[in-house]
Amino acid sequence: MSPKKSTVADSKLPLTETVEKRFIDSMPCTYILSVLAATNAELVTYPLDLTKTRLQIQGELAKAQDVQAKYRGMLATAIGIVKEEGPLKLWYGMSSVIYRHMIYSGVRVCTYDYLRTTFGHDNPAVWKLALFGVLSGCFAQWLANPADLVKVQMQMEGKRRLMGEPPRVLSSHQAFVDIYKRGGIIGLWKGSVPSVQRAALVNLGDLTAYDMAKRFFIHKMGMEEGPLAHMLASLVAGFVAAVAATPADVIKSRIMNQQTDEKGRQVSIYKNFHMICQFFKNSLN
């Protein structure tokens, strides 16, 4: 009996060591795969993101010029971009998005995974998942704010040129340098407050809703853990995140697109607060 026990123990030790040392289970692999997955998804959905930003900004531009907004829907805005600027402009600013995902997507997924496995154990409570999602999203977005700032400004560049305004952004690198020269390090974190608030809401609805939805489909609906359960959970998470984060996303885009003076200063805190109040007032009317 004793030789068999030692044989079983010996046969299990290498397997355990092999599992622990697998690169696919490591944090660097999680980081790389998160960045690649987010970048591939962004390549497909970026035209929608650009159209969304144009819709968020055009109301502010129309009010400044005392005219009616030219486009009233997503499809009309996208067609207008293609007709007026060319189809490739739907992907203008994609380089800044890649920079953003190299920081944001990797950091938020790895941070969330670390918090969940370290403090959440096997079956964490809902409030813990929500807290982990908010903390990881806020931290990742704060680090990635400079790239997000450049992305918003690049997405609005085509519109500025059509309005006869001088070019502001020629490339991602030039935008980073120009923002730094005008506002210093602090200037790179312009709009970081609503940006972090948006990230908190996105990850509260995204990571947390994904975990809860997947657990519901598997344990309550009897689904096997596979592509179907992951896809359904992703759809639920995406919907919840979009609904929760849209107000903060509009405010973030408008603040990041605002002009600064020669010293890199943007509009006053009072004007930002007034803009937020006006936005919610218009939404309720």
From TrEMBL:
Membrane topology according to the record: Multi-pass membrane protein
One Pfam family named in its UniProt record: Mito_carr
Localization terms from the record: Mitochondrion inner membrane
Gene3D superfamilies: Mitochondrial carrier domain
Keyword Transmembrane helix tagged: yes
Keywords: Membrane, Mitochondrion, Mitochondrion inner membrane, Repeat, Transmembrane, Transmembrane helix, Transport
SUPFAM superfamilies membership: Mitochondrial carrier
Cellular component annotations (GO), alphabetically ordered: mitochondrial inner membrane
Alphabetized InterPro entries for the sequence: MCP_dom_sf, MCP_transmembrane, Mito_Metabolite_Transporter
Transmembrane stretches, start-end: 228-248
Spans of repeat Solcar: 25-118, 124-216, 225-285
Family assignment from sequence similarity: Belongs to the mitochondrial carrier (TC 2.A.29) family.
Protein name as it appears in the record: Mitochondrial uncoupling protein 4
Organism whose genome encodes this protein: Glossina brevipalpis
